[in-house]
Amino acid sequence: MKSLALKTMAGCLCLALASSACAKKSSDAAAPREGRTLQIAVIPKGTTHEFWKSIHAGAVEAARELGVEVIWKGPQKEDDRAQQITVVEDFISRGVDGIVLAPLDDRALMRPVQDAVRERIPVVIIDSALQGSDFTSYVATDNYKGGVLAARRLGQLLGGRGRIFLIRYQEGSASTVQRETGFYDTVKKEFPDLVLLVRDQYAGATTETAYQLAENLISRFPDVEGVFAPNESSTFGTLRALQESRLAGKVVFVGFDSSPKLVQGLRDGHVQGLVVQNPRKMGYLGVKTMVAHLRGETVEKVIDTGVVLATADNMDDPDIKSLLSPDLSKIID
Questions:
Q1: Is 311 part of a structural domain of the chain?
Q2: Which of 94, 228, 278, 305 is a good FRET partner for 23, with 20 to 30 A between their CA atoms?
Q3: Are residues 135 and 284 in the same domain?
């Protein structure tokens, strides 16, 4: 009997030790080990446009401030969903502490994000919304409001009457869909005498595809009086087409985002308005929110990073100028 009791006690002790080890392993997976630098993967939609360079700058700024490591990697093209999914999967395999993601597609990236969370790697979404709720926080522009600002600028400059294009970006991109929706809803509600000659044409992910679309539309509708484009590449491609057709400055043109050439277009009177975000702030808060979460702090589910309208009249105001032409030289080595 004594021998049986000893065996029972030994078995219970082994079970307790095993349970303790499992609990410790689970705890280690949920929180970074002491003394190790946190690794945060930041995955943009692409890496070439000025917008993403500003996102990168903000992420680096936050990393330096907080003493963490940012690993920056994104797809080469902003329509390559498969490559972005692969990037997410690679970071899951590497076991990074957190992922900050600007999803190319609001549905296609749901599964990879679920996979990350299943592996106890939290995800903060930036720039463009993701369906579902498997993420820690959403840090982005109020994109619908940006579309509203663009519609009001265009409608007011046209006196509420005219023939216009609504040029779209690409299907599945939640941020631009929201901008296009805000623009369309505002035109229909506040400017019923604006005639939408085009409202369902997609510019695609590059400046060149946007240029080709805008060139074709101008050929079909040479009497167009106003145009809205919802992101940097579609805005620049459309600007090129207007300039080459000698309509720049004659057609009221409102775009979205900023780059040196778009700022010059605004100054030259070829662009009558640029709706600008704060991508540097977005990258900064994306990383800062992730680090706060990893350190056990409570974070907001939705964080609005702001949106404003830049015009020739206000483009040299310090606050607007810092958004149009941010100094990134000291942030990204």
A1: no
A2: 94
A3: yes
Which regions of the chain are under pLDDT 70?
1-35, 330, 332-333
Q: Are residues 174 and 257 in the same domain?
A: yes
The pTM score is 0.86
> What pLDDT shows up at residue 331?
72
The token pair at 9 is 């006690």
One-letter-per-residue 3-state SS of the chain: CHHHHHHHHHHHHHHHHHHHHHHHHHHHHHCCCCCCCCEEEEECCCCCCHHHHHHHHHHHHHHHHHCCEEEECCCCCCCCHHHHHHHHHHHHHHCCCEEEECCCCCCCCHHHHHHHHHCCCCEEEECCCCCCCCCCEEEECCHHHHHHHHHHHHHHHCCCCEEEEEEECCCCCHHHHHHHHHHHHHHHHHCCCEEEEEEEEECCCCHHHHHHHHHHHHHHCCCCCEEECCCHHHHHHHHHHHHHCCCECCEEEEEECCCHHHHHHHHHCCCCEEEECCHHHHHHHHHHHHHHHHCCCCCCCEEECCCEEECCCCCCCHHHHHHHCCCCCCCCC
Range of the domain at 252: 143-276
How confident is the model over 310-321, as pLDDT tens digits? 999 999 999 999
Residue 333: the pLDDT is 58
Asked whether residue 329 is assigned to any structural domain, the reply reads no
Q: 151 and 126 share a domain? A: no
User: What are the pLDDT digits (tens) for 88-143?
Assistant: 999 999 999 999 999 999 999 999 999 999 999 999 999 999 999 999 999 999 99
Residue 169 in domain: yes
267 and 283, same domain (yes or no)? no
